[in-house]
Structure formats: structure tokens, C-alpha cells
Amino acid sequence: MKDFVNVGLLGAGTVGGGVLKVLEKNAEKIAKEVGKPVRITKVLDRHVDSLKQEYGDKYIFTDNADEVLEDKDIDIIVELLGREHPAKEFIARAFANGKHVVTANKDVLAKFGSELFPLAHEHNCDFMFEASVCGGIPIIGPLKTSMAANQITSIMGIVNGTTNYMLSKMANEHLDYDESDPTADVGGLDAARKITILASIAFNTRFNLDDVQVEGIESIEACDIKYATDLGYAVKLLAIAKNDPENGVSLRVNPTMIPLSHPLAGVNGVYNAVFVNGDAIGEAMFLGLGAGRLPTASSVCGDIIDIARNMQHKSTGRISCTCFEEKRLCPPDKMSAPAYIRLQVADKPGALAAIAAAFGAQNVSLRNVVQTNDVLSNKAEIVVITHSVSEANLQMALQILRVLPVVEAISCVIRVEDSHLA
Ligand code: NDP
Ligand code: HSE
After folding, report:
1. Catalytically active residues, by annotation
2. Protein residue with its CA nearest to atom 7 in ligand 2
3. Distance from Cα 401 to the centre of ligand 2, integer Å
4. Three-state SS across the chain?
């Protein structure tokens, strides 16, 4: 038996730097938790010179991945490089060399999970990734362990801090988001990767990024948030996974109106939260910081400790891939939810009746209608909230509305999650 658990770190940037800090600062406590000291021996990063300046000779820094991945003394590889490649190949090589892996890389997990989990299993290695979803919030571990006895029925999460910060700012300062920002955060892709990972664990079924219907926050304006507030809702970018026994599993990321009384409605700024519904636990919410150097390092280090304990007790590979089912996906047009729709219309007789008829023709029942008029221009803005409507019927209704002479524009469509709106 070795005297240390040896860790090789791939990437000493924001999170990697945090891991070096936490493992050093809390080394004594961690050694007691595990039963022996855990130490980082080698670090792969492009910036060897500046890292040597910062850390001196505490660690061996290298820009050659082979030096870390082929080192027989290293037990655990911590991958914090980011992006898909070469991170995926490095993880695969680590398993092939019998090393356990911790990663925070949602890009790799959401795309290559189906390749990597069998590899980990084949080599009896642990593969842990708590930090890949919501940085510092424990959610993967609880789903795989504490809540494993539940049939999970739904997960709704604010899993992207950037967009939550932007929406909170728009709500508090009535600012519009009018910049064309192409990043994964604003377009919903970051959240889609995270719900792919969470749903795969919650529903014991391997889902892929392509299974998620994704919409970002680009079309949300400050006035939508104001209308929502007046109607008793908050607007959040939610990642939603639901298991409907009749239609199957639906996975989506979209701006969503939730009642102000819902626990997720009060999650503001850079905070993340995941709201889980299980048949035994009922409702549970996990809240905290979804990113940042130390919160994310907290999750990474927790995974390292978990693996180190497994090594101590010769129980590695204990919790391997939990995707032992093949739950079917709900076809996108069968997904259903109430909807908020904001329209620009000509303010003339029969306009509202024509709009109501378009909804009625598609069996869409209206719950709220708000109209504001601009007398000078003879224009009106109409906001409706529907009762629950299938995506197919909603899209048909929108198609009819688009060609109605009285409708000048459909400015915004937001899904609503409200158990009172059946
Ligand atoms: P950083 O870009 O800050 O750090 C990555 C480091 O690895 C950089 O120094 C980078 O150098 C280096 N690197 C990347 N590829 C290579 C390579 N092939 N060879 C050598 N060095 C390389 O990323 P973060 O620490 O922010 O993120 C790491 C992971 O953690 C990502 O998967 C991210 O999604 C995840 N994560 C991050 C969170 C956060 O708050 N930052 C929160 C939750 C998850 P260079 O900069 O020159 O490319
Ligand atoms: N970009 C993410 C966010 C953090 O804004 O929440 C890393 O997943």
C-alpha cells in the first residue's frame, strides 16, 4: 500500500488553480477524511513558466500529457482542461491505464458519456463529475446515492449563472438584453449540456445533447419580465426534464415563467438551483453557486476524496454508469405547457376576436388577456397566457396568427410552468 493517494491534474486554470488551493489549505483534514494524505504530483498545462513562478517546485509542471497519463504512480486524473478535445481522449487514456477520473467537463460528458462510462467500467475505475453541473452544488452525488431509491418525476433547474444574472438584472433594473451574444450561455447550450447529464442520471437512461429542445433568452425583453411580474410570475431560463408515463421523457431548455411563489423564482443573480421531484422524497431544492474557482473546486475535491476512500476500502467502480434503462423520449410536438404570447396588433374592431378565434381553432384555451393601447399610432400590444397546450397546437396557432392581417408581429413566446394552469 502506498503512503499517498497521488493525483495528476490536467489544467491549472480557474478551477484547477482552485483545486490546488483547496487540497493544500485543507490537506490535514482531507488526510483524516480519507485515511491517508492526498497530493497532486504532476500538473499538465500550457503555461508551465508562469505556473512555476506562482507555485515554485511544489508540483511538477509539464506541457506533455504523456508525462501525467503514463505515470504509474498516479492514481487519479483530474481533467480540468475544458472543451471536447483532447480532454475526451485524455480521459479515455486514463481509464485504459487503470486510473480513476474526476472531471468538470460537461461538454465531454454530454457528448461522449456513452463511450467513456463503459471504458471506466471495463477497467474498474471510478468516474466522477459532480462539478460538471452547477459547479459547487452537490446534485449528481445526491441523485446517484441519497435519492437513488426514488422514481424521479421531474427536474427543473436554473443551471446557468450567466443568464440568471442577466435576467435578474433585467427584472431589477428594467434593462433590456439587446446585445447579440453568441455564447453557449445565452443560447441555452450550456444549460442543455447540464440537463442532458442530470436527466441521464435521474431517469437511468443515456440521453444525448440532441435530445434537448433548446431556446435561449435572446428574445426576452424587459417588458416581458414586467408583464410576467404583473401577472404573478418570474422569468427564468429553466432546464426541464420530465418523465410523463404516457408520452415519455421530455428534455428542454427555454425561458420559462414560474409563479413568484415557486422556490426557483427567488433564485437570483449568479446563483443556480435544481428543483427535484421524486416519488418518495417529494420536492427538494439544491441551491448554491454554480461556478467560480473555489465553489467548483469544492465539488472536484469532494470527488477526489470519494475515490480516495474507495481506493482505501478496495471498492472502486462501486457506482458505475447508472443508465440501465431505455426510457423513451417524448416527441417534441407532444410536449405541453401553458404559454405566454406577446403580440403587436392593429387597434381596430374585430382584432381581438380574430386573435381569440385563431387560438380557439387550435383548441388553445386562453386564461389571461392583457391589452395596452397606443392611441397615437392606433396600435395595441396584446399579451395572452394560455392553458396547457401541446407544442403542435401552439405552433399551428402561431402560424395562423402570423398571417392574420391584424397581427403585425409576434414579439415573444414564453412557456409557463404553473401547476394551477392545467
Ligand atoms: P480555464 O480555461 O481557466 O483552465 C484550463 C487550463 O488548461 C488553461 O490554463 C488552459 O490553457 C489549459 N489547457 C487547455 N487545454 C490544454 C491542453 N491541451 N494542454 C495543456 N494545457 C491546456 O478553464 P476553467 O478552469 O474555467 O474550466 C475547466 C473545466 O471546468 C471546464 O470543463 C469547465 O466547463 C468546467 N467548469 C468551470 C467552471 C468555472 O467556474 N470556471 C464551473 C463549472 C465547470 P489556455 O488558457 O492557454 O487554453
Ligand atoms: N458558464 C456557466 C454559467 C458556468 O454561466 O453558469 C460553467 O458551467
Report:
1. 194
2. 291
3. 36
4. CCCCEEEEEECCCHHHHHHHHHHHHCHHHHHHHHCCCEEEEEEECCCHHHHHHHHCCCCEEECCHHHHHCCCCCCEEEECCCCCCCHHHHHHHHHHCCCEEEECCHHHHHHHHHHHHHHHHHCCCCEECHHHCCCCCCCHHHHHCCCCCCCEEEEEEECCHHHHHHHHHHHHHCCCCCCCCCCHHHHCHHHHHHHHHHHHHHCCECCCHHHCEECCCCCCCHHHHHHHHHCCEEEEEEEEEEEECCCEEEEEEEEEEEECCCHHHHCCCCEEEEEEEECCCEEEEEEEECCCHHHHHHHHHHHHHHHHHHHHCCCCCCCCCCCCECCCECCHHHCEECEEEEEEEECCCCHHHHHHHHHHHCCCCEEEEEEEEECCCCEEEEEEEECCEEHHHHHHHHHHHHHCCCEEEEEEEEEECCCCCC
